[in-house]
Amino acid sequence: MHLVLQAPGIRHDLIEQAAALVSANRITPLNACAMRLEEIDQSALAELQAWARSKHVDVAALEDIRPLHDMKVLAMDMDSTLINIECIDEIADMVGKKAEVSAITEAAMRGEITDFSESLRRRVALLKGVAETDLLRVYNERLQLNVGAEKLIRTMKAAGVHVMVVSGGFTFFTEKLRARLGLDSAHANVLEVNNGKLTGQVYGDIVDGNKKAAHLRSLALSLNATPEQCIAVGDGSNDLAMLSNAAYSVAYRAKPVLQQAAAFQINYAGLDAILNWFDSKDATQAAQAR
């Protein structure tokens, strides 16, 4: 087994401490923020993970280091995963309703509201009358990509991985990100607009947790991809079902319920930390050449 340790500007002395804890046979530097400990003593893994939490270091335990081009699917949530905000909360802020909407959002992401579709409809109803131009203001003024997102997507695409965003948010934002980042596919909810204002309704079926999982399964089937060739990344309870369909299930800055369920956690490094779990040298070079 190998361990990949990652943190912004990780110190060499921390790597040496970790290597000693697990009796690593070899230390392989990956970049300024990541090191790989190879052929470790697995009996010390729990102790190492507790140590890593105390030092704010992300740890990924891997049986082997697979070539990135062996992977076929990267499925990502949007709000608070690919991007830094919950779009619906910021839209609500435009009309002075952020506190009310955010309270429902937080409860839903923690898993305290089990019917995501109903919670979304309740929140969208509060947005009735919001101008469509306010959504554009949220995109232009508040939405930022999370650290490492562009590098992750660019390198995945260079490796031939299908990059999909599947969100319980809104197509107004996913379609802009699809064009901006060159995403291969995107799925989200459609806000109903009449005369330039939100009606407080959504079109069609709600993209909830089950629908997210269905989109991943459908894509994997179309690409003949096994769960071992799928990576899924999310932050809330609405991502649980999707992540259960990927061997590389990743909780990014996630709520406790998802942290516990996911195979991997990223709490300190950027999204591009995922690349260091694979042999991605060729894809990284190809991405840089673009």
Automatic annotation (TrEMBL):
Key words, A-Z:
Amino-acid biosynthesis, Hydrolase, Magnesium, Metal-binding, Serine biosynthesis
| Source species | Advenella kashmirensis (strain DSM 17095 / LMG 22695 / WT001)
Family, similarity comment = Belongs to the HAD-like hydrolase superfamily. SerB family.
Write out the catalysed reaction.
Answer: O-phospho-D-serine + H2O = D-serine + phosphate; O-phospho-L-serine + H2O = L-serine + phosphate
User: This chain belongs to which protein, by name?
Assistant: Phosphoserine phosphatase
Question: Active site located where?
Answer: D77 (nucleophile), D79 (proton donor)
Q: Which PANTHER family match?
A: PHOSPHOSERINE PHOSPHATASE
| Pathway this chain belongs to | Amino-acid biosynthesis; L-serine biosynthesis; L-serine from 3-phospho-D-glycerate: step 3/3
Q: What is the lineage of its organism?
A: Bacteria, Pseudomonadati, Pseudomonadota, Betaproteobacteria, Burkholderiales
Q: What is its EC number?
A: 3.1.3.3
Task: Indicate the enzyme's highest-level EC class.
Answer: hydrolase
So which cofactors does this thing need? Mg(2+)
Instruction: Give a GO cellular-component term.
Output: cytoplasm
What molecular function does GO assign, one term? magnesium ion binding
Q: Which GO terms describe its biological process?
A: L-serine biosynthetic process
Going by the entry's taxonomy, the superkingdom of the source organism is recorded as Bacteria
